[in-house]
Specification:
The chain is α/β, with parallel strands linked by helices and 306 residues long. The protein has 10 helices and 8 strands. β7, α9 and β8 form a beta-alpha-beta unit. The protein is globular, with a radius of gyration of 17 Å.
Length: 306
């Protein structure tokens, strides 16, 4: 197994939606032993502490929640991602999914600077392809893929380099996509795998197909893992629970395949809300998945008595 320098970067973003609690996520991951789990695998682990947003002035908006704060987080996290990718494998401890507005932007900047294409694997019940104009909820954690692909309406957010190519994105685990997003996605070349696809054909084949494309292009791979990718029966600590998600075994298979591929260059762990957890159960599940992505094998996996 290749040893890496893993940078743990706290991203206590709680502005992407109205239900609070994700700001506690970074400390929950630390308490659940993420750093030690990765160190036990032989990696060099550097905890850089928590990022904070740039200075901002809140302004009321008739629809959007915390637009200025989320834009300020985007600026700060883009810089943190770009810097982190120069130093090792940045792992962003979220924080709600609005953090990926910044982390993917930073990865895009870094990939462009080194002349490699960026690919994004989105493990999520939701497509997060809204824009500030199409969202009904006004919650910007549903907009990251809309933003990085260059959709309109993101006034006040950092300018993109070349927008992320649609065919460089795979969303796996979909089971909650509203009508405006569905209509927009159907006109794209984004690779989409919903839970019916997974039930009928399994999760390994579509994932391997995507990883093969990343490898063939000598691409960098940003992975964004949302707690709600998993079924809420095994990962309840998320404010957007959707029944029928991935099993623990499917989650570990995805992570093990990512490790085997050697392609992952940056990693988001998002939407953990410890306020909704059961004795740290979800935080521990996410730590175990992250460890699988960095090389822990089934024979090494500890037994949990949550």
């Amino acid at each position: 197994m290749t040893q890496q320098t893993c940078l743990l970067i706290g991203a206590p973003v709680d502005s992407g939606k109205r239900r609070t609690g994700c700001l506690m996520g970074p400390d929950a991951y630390r308490t659940a032993g993420l750093g030690q789990a990765l160190a036990d695998l032989g990696h060099t682990v550097i905890d850089t502490g928590n990022v904070g947003p740039r200075r901002f002035e809140p302004k009321p908006h008739p629809k959007l929640h915390a637009r200025e704060e989320t834009a300020a987080w985007t600026e700060a996290l883009a810089d943190a991602a770009e810097d982190g990718l120069k130093r090792g494998l940045p792992i962003f401890l979220g924080g709600d999914h609005a953090l990926s507005l910044g982390t993917v932007l930073g990865a895009m900047r870094h990939a462009e600077s080194v002349g490699r294409p960026l690919f994004v694997l989105w493990l999520d019940a939701h497509s997060d392809y809204h824009t500030p104009e199409t969202t009904d909820s006004g919650n910007l954690h549903g907009t990251p893929l809309g933003y990085v692909t260059g959709r309109a309406g993101f006034d006040g957010f950092p300018a993109l380099p070349t927008p992320l190519q649609q065919e460089h994105i795979a969303i796996i685990g979909l089971r909650s996509v509203d009508a405006p997003e569905r209509a927009a996605l159907q006109d794209t070349s984004i690779h989409r795998v919903d839970m019916r696809d997974i039930d009928e054909h399994g999760i390994a084949k579509p994932l391997q197909s995507f990883l093969d494309r990343v490898s063939a292009a000598n691409g960098m791979l940003h992975v964004s893992l949302d707690v709600d990718f998993l079924d809420p029966s095994v990962a309840p600590a998320v404010g957007t629970t959707v029944p029928g998600g991935a099993t623990i075994r499917e989650g570990h298979l995805v992570m093990e395949m990512l490790h085997d591929s050697g392609l992952m260059t940056s990693f988001d762990l998002v939407e953990l809300n410890p306020f909704l957890d059961e004795r740290g159960r979800t935080a521990q599940v996410m730590v175990d998945l992250a460890a699988s992505a960095l090389g822990r094998r089934v024979f090494d996996r500890p037994t949990r008595a949550y």
